[in-house]
Amino acid sequence: MNDERIECPKCKWEPDGGAYWTCYCGCNWNTFSTYGKCPECGKVHKDTQCPACQAWSPHPDWYLDLENISIKVEEKASAQE
Fold this sequence. Notes:
Elements (H helix, E strand, L loop, with lengths): L4 E2 L14 E2 L5 E2 L17 E3 L6 E3 L4 E2 L17
Antiparallel strand pairs: 1-6, 2-3, 4-5
């Protein structure tokens, strides 16, 4: 991670770099190392659940001090569409 400040918008828990998140494909990883994109299947998770308080929040809401940075969240188009 860079010098970004990250915390749960609801309870202020701060991630410690652990792999607390699991994608639908079964991959466990630190969602903040990839801005919510699963490193295995490429799914972009728009919401993130806090391991401490269990509340869900939009992924970009976890990042503090980003007034000059825009986070663009895109989902891969389904091959079947």
